[in-house]
Predict the 3D structure of the following.
Amino acid sequence: MHVSIKNFVKHIKFMQSSNNDVILGISGARGVGKSVLMMKMSEEFKGGLYDMEKYHIYKRKELIDDLENFPDREMLCVDEAITSLFKREFQKKSQINIIKMFNMYRDKSFLIFLLIPHFWDFDSSIRNSLIIKYWIYCFQRGEAVVFHADKNPGTFDPFDRKWIYRYWKSRQIHKAPNYVCNIRWSNVDEERYSLYKQIKARKRKLDNEDEKKEEIPITQIVKQMFKKNPNLNQAQLAKILNTSSAYVNKLICKERDDVLTNDL
């Protein structure tokens, strides 16, 4: 079933009118038109052309500021969400703060676009906690398929990855339990897209030194994880941290030595 951008945005506005926020994850390979789809939906949402300078976000700090200061039912376009909500950077204080704010500011009924090449690269606290209402997968230039999150409280995977894989492989994705619709869109005009690329190039060059200073020391992360789950072994922890078991063992030994030194 194909749905027009106009009708899909109308549905989003209806959700907002019922005091719901609408956070959309948009993924897909390079060149399939993720950013163009976001621009098309944003223009429809705003009833015409919108201010890319105002709404397009590339830094965590900018996203945090806008979540705090934008009025209710506004729009935020996080164009490269991998810089803000990447699963391998879960230890960054600003990323943790954004996840908290998504929950704290639900009553502001924002429309938030989160663009990322691979959906499963989102921080699991975003992907698996019903924060994202719809996942839009752009599978070819100008066409996407939309899935909704499963609200079953017992699920650890609201987007039912195994079912999506099975039905996509059999070319029957419309039978997937959380399938919503397909969306098609055309290109924006060259002048508009050129302006978008200029803003994107300038904004993403902004200094990120403040974010680097906010990183939690990895030894502290190890300590917190073991405190939360004492049964974790080194191999499991290494997988979570995307590193080697030898490195994890070195961190654990260092933590143990620090404790002994402090006791003396």
Confidence is low (pLDDT under 50) at residues 259-264. DSSP finds twelve helices and seven strands in the chain.
